[in-house]
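Q: Please design a sequence for this.
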């Protein structure tokens, strides 16, 4: 009887291990199959970190019980080592500054409107954010969910940032304006001259946009793209559902209440395919080397990320360390903010900056070239 139970238990564990391996393989597949074709695959990409952890647990278990079975998950992880390296940098990159006099520092952050809607202390929190951004001491700053109030003395951002960051060259684009003075959009601030600029509009999506600024540094022209790609737009009910799931209470919400979240995610997956595709198409026509910053709302194990990294380099993978999660809202933490660049640049000193107010960490990297 005991032998029979052990046999059943072993088969069950092997079956569960195989399921975990299949889920990991589907996560890899999600990076090459468009969510427009098979949206369900994108959910495996989001779940990559959890599925990876489960497979690591199986490896540890089999090493204690029967080492040969550990190969199942080990080989599957090695098969997707590129995705693993995009997700986590196990060892810090000790690369020093390259031997080049041409070097700039780029900073990017979703600034959550500089806390405009926190009426009681929005000016105080805006000033804290600006001080934190100023401490990065960058040369080029890219802001998503940027806000500017054109009313004199109401909620200054544009001129304040110019002064504090010592970046007088500005490219602002607004997707929404209310009452002719509240402007919502995206902005790039530069210490170097901006000689040309433009924007990439996305069909049927007013609130998301990508801008590009041609910046001259050390006699060379660099095209800096600043993008905010399709957000998920969770409702208050969605956040309530997640809060209730995370509470240590016996009564949990019914799973059917999470169906709207799945629908919103699916819609966002599909939108990002078109938006990232439009950005890539524009980049491929650029006459200058490119830096692409932004909030992409997608993880490193995704179709959109794979699309961009086919032509650009992820600066985190060059000189980042750890998991590098950038989103710090109520939903699970992911790395969804990036600084990509053309292969001509060499990246070093990647940094994720502490954040107290926005739901996104600021990130920065230094880039050099010959």
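A: Design:
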């Amino acid at each position: 009887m005991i032998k029979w139970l052990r046999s059943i238990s072993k088969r069950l564990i092997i079956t569960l291990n195989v399921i975990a391996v299949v889920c990991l393989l589907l996560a890899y597949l999600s990076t090459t199959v468009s969510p427009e074709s098979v949206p369900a695959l994108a959910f495996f990409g989001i779940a990559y970190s959890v599925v990876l952890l489960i497979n690591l647990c199986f490896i540890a278990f089999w090493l204690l019980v029967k080492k040969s079975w550990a190969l199942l998950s080990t080989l599957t992880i090695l098969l997707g080592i590129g995705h693993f390296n995009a997700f986590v940098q196990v060892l810090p990159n000790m690369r020093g500054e390259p031997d080049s006099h041409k070097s700039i520092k780029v900073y990017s952050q979703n600034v959550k409107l500089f806390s405009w809607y926190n009426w009681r202390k929005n000016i105080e929190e805006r000033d804290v954010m600006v001080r934190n951004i100023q401490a990065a001491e960058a040369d080029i700053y890219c802001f998503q969910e940027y806000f500017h109030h054109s009313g004199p003395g109401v909620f200054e951002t544009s001129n304040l940032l110019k002064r504090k960051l010592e970046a007088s060259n500005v490219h602002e684009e607004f997707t929404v304006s209310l009452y002719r003075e509240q402007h919502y959009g995206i902005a790039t601030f530069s210490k170097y001259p901006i000689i040309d600029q433009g924007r990439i509009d996305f069909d049927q999506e007013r609130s998301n946009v990508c801008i590009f600024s041609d910046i001259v540094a050390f006699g060379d022209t660099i095209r800096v793209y600043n993008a905010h790609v399709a957000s998920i737009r969770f409702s208050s009910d969605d956040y309530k559902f997640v809060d209730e799931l995370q509470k240590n209470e016996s009564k949990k919400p019914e799973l059917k209440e999470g169906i709207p979240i799945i629908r919103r995610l699916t819609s966002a997956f599909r939108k990002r395919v078109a938006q990232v595709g439009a950005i890539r198409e524009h980049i491929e026509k650029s006459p200058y080397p490119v830096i692409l910053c932004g909030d992409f709302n997608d993880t490193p194990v995704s179709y959109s990320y794979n699309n961009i990294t086919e032509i650009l380099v992820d600066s985190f993978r060059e000189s980042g360390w750890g998991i590098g999660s950038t989103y710090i809202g109520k939903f699970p933490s992911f790395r969804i903010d990036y600084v990509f660049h053309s292969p001509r640049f060499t990246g070093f000193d990647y940094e994720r900056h502490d954040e107290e107010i926005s739901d996104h960490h600021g990130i920065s990297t230094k880039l050099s070239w010959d």
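Q: Thanks. Anything notable?
A: The two ends are 73 Å apart (CA to CA). The first strand starts at residue 102 and ends at 110.
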